[in-house]
């Protein structure tokens, strides 16, 4: 059912007009979005071949997870996170796939507790408590004195995270483990910040939103997990090299940008207006089509910045193993963006498969079902 746009934010005249105006201007429009993978032409998509077998293991694992059946069924039907794992880590061994897939299930389950439509959407104190419990789990499992036993009466998303982090830690070196610990803390704390922004009566500035989403998005741990998937450890000085920092940041921004476009229909239908396309419409009085074109141009721009940075990486003149590991890490950064796009076109989390044509264009429908 469509919300009553005359009642949105009632009691705050300026913000009401702002939100109501964006909904009115976008309502019932269709827009054909080009194949986003074509905007990143040098970065191929490949798939790990053991998807079906891992899906069978996931089905058995989900029976043991203390998450509501409704939530399990929703994500199993629309998410296909085994496919996302397969496109993020196409060359990893089969035995690595289960923990990596479980992590992606966890991140979507956990995000549901705080994100729009989740149990804690308007509960600031509940959100902070959830983040505190999750941060404790991260330190328990990835800190200097590992403890893999969840506290009694832990929430399901925390309880399930302990064995996932245990398995990931077992396949990572100390440098990568500490990096993952810090990145997970950044993600958890960033999600709470996003909730705070969504509860403001004014729509955020699009550039502030883009910066916050790029800083807080939960994809950077998935880059580090390439070291688990491919059984290597990148030296910290290489990870902190200027060019590598640019590549990680730009691939994170690319993932944010393409997700803002591909998730637009889903977010509009639940009145989550903190989407870059809608924020550009609001801030600059752009049409829907112009705002989408603006985001697509940003994808092209950040892709070019990322590609240019690769020439500045500290490639070795004699150590081929070093170069192979460096190449794998960079390709893993690329797959963050291309994998997210590929997965979005091949599952129904954001739109129906029938909305995608043979040229991989998607017809987004900004109406209410």
Characterize the structure shown:
The chain has 369 residues and is an all-alpha fold. The protein has 17 helices and two strands. The chain has one domain (13-366): Orthogonal Bundle (Farnesyl Diphosphate Synthase), CATH 1.10.600.10. The chain has a two-stranded antiparallel sheet with strand order 1-2. The longest helix is centred in the C-terminal third of the chain and has 26 residues, at 320-345.
**In terms of structural class, how would the helical and strand content be classed?**
mainly alpha
* Overall morphology: globular
**Number of β-strand runs:** 2
Radius of gyration: 20 Å
What would CATH call the homologous superfamily?
Farnesyl Diphosphate Synthase
The CATH architecture is: Orthogonal Bundle
- As laid out across the biggest beta sheet, the strand order is 1-2
- What is the percentage of strand-forming residues? under 5%
Q: Main beta sheet: strand number and arrangement?
A: 2 strands, antiparallel
How many separate domains? 1
- Unreliable spans: 1-13, 116-120
Instruction: Report the order of strands and helices.
Output: HEHHHHHHHHHHHHHHHHE
CATH top level assignment: Mainly Alpha
Cofactor: Mg(2+)
InterPro entries: Isoprenoid_synthase_dom_sf (IPR008949), Terpene_cyclase-like_2 (IPR034686)
EC number: 4.2.3.-
GO molecular function, one term: metal ion binding
Record the SSE blueprint.
Blueprint: H1 13-26, E1 29-33, H2 51-62, H3 69-78, H4 81-88, H5 94-112, H6 124-142, H7 156-159, H8 161-170, H9 174-198, H10 206-216, H11 220-230, H12 236-239, H13 242-262, H14 264-269, H15 276-284, H16 288-309, H17 320-345, E2 362-366
Antiparallel strand pairs: 1-2
């Amino acid at each position: 059912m469509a919300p009553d746009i005359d009642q949105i934010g009632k009691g705050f005249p300026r913000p009401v007009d702002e939100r109501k105006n964006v909904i009115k201007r976008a309502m019932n429009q269709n827009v054909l979005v080009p194949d986003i993978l074509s905007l990143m032409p040098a970065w191929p998509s490949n798939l790990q071949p053991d998807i079906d077998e891992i899906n069978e293991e996931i089905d058995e694992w989900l029976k043991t997870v203390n998450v509501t059946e409704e939530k399990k069924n929703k994500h199993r039907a629309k998410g296909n996170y085994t496919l996302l794992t397969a496109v993020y880590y196409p060359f990893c061994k089969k035995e690595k796939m289960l923990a990596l897939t479980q992590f992606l299930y966890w991140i979507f389950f956990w995000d549901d507790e705080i994100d729009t439509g989740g149990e804690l959407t308007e509960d600031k104190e509940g959100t902070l408590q959830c983040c505190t419990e999750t941060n404790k789990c991260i330190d328990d499992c990835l800190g200097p004195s590992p403890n893999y036993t969840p506290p009694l009466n832990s929430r399901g998303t925390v309880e399930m995270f302990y064995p996932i982090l245990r398995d990931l830690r077992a396949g990572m070196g100390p440098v990568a483990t500490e990096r993952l610990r810090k990145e997970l803390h950044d993600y958890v704390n960033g999600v709470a910040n996003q909730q705070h922004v969504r509860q403001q009566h004014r729509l955020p500035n699009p550039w502030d939103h883009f910066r916050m989403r790029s800083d807080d998005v939960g994809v950077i741990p998935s880059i580090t997990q390439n070291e688990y998937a491919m059984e290597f450890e990148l030296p910290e000085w290489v990870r902190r090299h200027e060019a590598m920092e640019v590549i990680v940041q730009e691939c994170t921004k690319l993932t944010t940008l393409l997700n803002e476009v591909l998730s637009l229909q889903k977010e509009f239908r639940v009145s989550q207006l903190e989407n870059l396309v809608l924020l550009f419409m609001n801030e600059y009085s752009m049409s829907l089509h112009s705002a989408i074109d603006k985001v697509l141009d940003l994808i092209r721009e950040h892709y070019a910045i990322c590609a240019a940075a690769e020439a500045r990486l500290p490639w070795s003149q004699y150590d081929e193993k070093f170069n192979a590991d460096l190449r794998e890490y960079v390709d893993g950064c690329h797959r963050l963006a291309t994998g997210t796009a590929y997965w979005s076109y091949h599952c129904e989390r954001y739109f129906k498969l029938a909305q995608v044509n043979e040229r991989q264009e998607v017809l987004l429908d900004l109406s209410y079902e």
